[in-house]
Amino acid sequence: MENELYWNSLISTLPNPHFLQTHEWAQVKAVGGWQPLYAVWDADGTVHYASRITEYASTPKAAALILKKTVIRRGLAARLCILYCPKGPNLDWNDAPLRKRVLDDLQGLARQQGAIFLKLDPDVVLGTGVPGAEDAVTEPGGEAVRAELSRRGWRFSEEQIQFRNTVLLDVSPSEEEMLARMKQKTRYNARLASKKGVSVRAGTEADFPMLYLMYAETAARDGFMIREEHYYQTVWRTFQYPTGTMSSAPFAEPLIAEVDGEPVAAVFLFAFAGRAYYVYGMSREAHREKMPAYLLQWEAMKWAKARGCGIYDLWGAPDVFDESDSMWGVFRFKEGLGGYVARTLGAWDFAPNPLWYAIYTRVMPKVLDFMRGRGKAKTKRIHKEHEGH
Predict the structure, then answer these.
(1) pLDDT digits (tens, 9 = 90+) for 334-387
(2) Largest CA-CA distance found in the chain, in angstroms, rounded
(3) Pseudo-torsion of CA 320, 321, 326, 328, nearest 10°?
């Protein structure tokens, strides 16, 4: 426990710490066969790699949780693996010498490990605001990072694991100020939900099976794929700490909207190092006219503020900001809450072996499409079986 607390404390002191870089996320991914590799760069730039967390005498300048999965276990290609650094590495990306050292070392690691590729997708901001809008701003520092990755031979990945863009809410102002910042219709709907009898409560572990069934209903209705129930049970239990008992630990909790005691919608929230995240959202057809989603997000904003967070990340915005993007409707809803768009670097791949990378990127989309098809069919079956009970 002390070592995992040390790791979380370490990354929380670095720029842009993220809950996907925590020890808890490494535990979640280990269930799926990913091996964690913890990388720490000392003040003098020396890098240390370890499969287990160890403490260091000096104050680190950078750190990264890197996940490794072996792709082929036998034969001539037995060493082949893929490496993924989710929302990392953690460092001051504007520090050019440090950035060079970290990227040099990561590229060396990819070669040494026999990786088909190393993927990273740090929260390096390229700009804020919707492109073309009056308030849109470009971040020169982010553009410099993108240019350096291109110079080094990194490739913008066709497989974006996380959302490249998102909507952020500043939850440091007073509740009155946050309400005033919302669009009028959003504010009206949040208040309407309360008047129509919608209430919101914190969920517990006893709610997890119900939440998964609601998530499956949402996926079946909206046409997206979700994972097996045990995966979400692992995520939710791993991050479920009693409030206030472990200040340096990431924490997750569901908020559930009910009408007359009947759950009708829910959000699953994460908090770590001053930032809250809306990661999973689910709803039923019942009582949708009572606008439970609006009240849920208002309660989520207050939840984030109460846990000392300054930013609430609404987890996802369109790649293309017009009605052609499948996330346009969801984005308009999030925008109404008073947030602003942050456009980030996205995922980039370093491929030491271009041949294996070409093979992998040709084959994997077909495999993933097949798995998504099976996953969607299974999700619909789970939902239909639940409806039949």
Answers:
(1) 999 999 999 999 999 999 989 889 888 887 655 445 444 555 555 556 555 556
(2) 66
(3) 170
Q: What are phi and psi of 280, to 5 degrees?
A: -125, 135
What is the CA 176 to chain-centroid distance, rounded?
29
| pLDDT at 1 (0 to 100) | 55
40 vs 49: CA distance, rounded Å: 7
Question: pTM score > 0.70 for this model?
Answer: yes
User: Is residue 77 within 8 Å of 360, Cβ to Cβ?
Assistant: no
For tokens 């206030």, name the residue.
244
- Contact (Cβ atoms closer than 8 angstroms) between residue 322 and residue 218: no
pLDDT 10s digits, 210-231: 999 999 999 989 888 889 999 9
pLDDT in tens, 118-161: 999 999 999 999 999 999 999 999 999 999 999 999 999 999 99
pLDDT of residue 244: 45
Identify whether the C-beta of residue 93 lies closer than 8 Å to the C-beta of residue 145: yes
User: Residue type for 226, please?
Assistant: I
Produce one character per residue of 250-264: b if its CB has 16 or more CB atoms within 10 Å, e if not: bbbbbbbbbbeeebb
> Which of 265, 50, 171 is closest to 179 using CA atoms?
171
| Structure tokens belonging to residue 127 | 């700009």
The neighbouring-strand residues paired with 341 are 167
Domains defined for the chain, CATH in brackets: 2-120 (3.40.630.30), 167-343 (3.40.630.30)
The amino acid at residue 45 is G
CB 281 within 8 A of CB 255: no
